[in-house]
């Protein structure tokens, strides 16, 4: 009885320690990439009419990631498609104007350029996604629907 209880306790400590270590690594990774995640506000210009009090509709909203210190940001093409004015909201809640440099609807990716970058923003370090294999742990940091940064954890399931 004592031997089996000890074995269960040792297994629990090993698994528990592993989970805590992974949680700490995930938390540290989240803190490291959070300053690179931005909220993209893509505004559609509208003509003022009798039933409209303003001339702008903030209907395009999505996440993006700062990829260079000079203000280049990657986002989804559907966020900025057909929109006029772009504002990028950084982690410090500062909004800065931006413009589209390139966009591919078929790949659903767009590259935009900010007029400037706040000092607190940090460009993400990009890596080779071809190194990710089926079964690898992955996580996504984003700001869906203008919410503050969220973290989604999963496992890579696709086969290449």
How would you characterize this protein structure?
This protein is of the alpha+beta class. It has a domain at 37-125: Thrombin, subunit H. The protein is built from 2 helices and 8 strands, in the order H-E-E-E-H-E-E-E-E-E. The protein has helices at 2-33, 77-80; strands at residues 37-45, 56-66, 72-75, 85-89, 95-104, 109-114, 137-142, 150-155. The strands form 2 sheets. The protein has a 6-stranded antiparallel β-barrel. The chain has a two-stranded antiparallel sheet with strand order 7-8. The radius of gyration is 21 Å and the shape is globular.
Please tell me the overall pLDDT: 76
Write down the CATH topology of the domain at 37-125: Thrombin, subunit H
Number of DSSP strand runs: 8
What overall form do the CA principal axes indicate? Answer: globular
- Uncertain segments are 1-19, 54-58
Report the radius of gyration as a whole number of Å: 21 Å
Please outline the helices and strands.
Elements: H1 2-33, E1 37-45, E2 56-66, E3 72-75, H2 77-80, E4 85-89, E5 95-104, E6 109-114, E7 137-142, E8 150-155
Antiparallel strand pairs: 1-2, 1-4, 2-3, 3-6, 4-5, 5-6, 7-8
How would you describe this structure in keywords?
160 residues, alpha+beta, Thrombin, subunit H, six-stranded antiparallel beta barrel, two-stranded antiparallel sheet, disordered N terminus
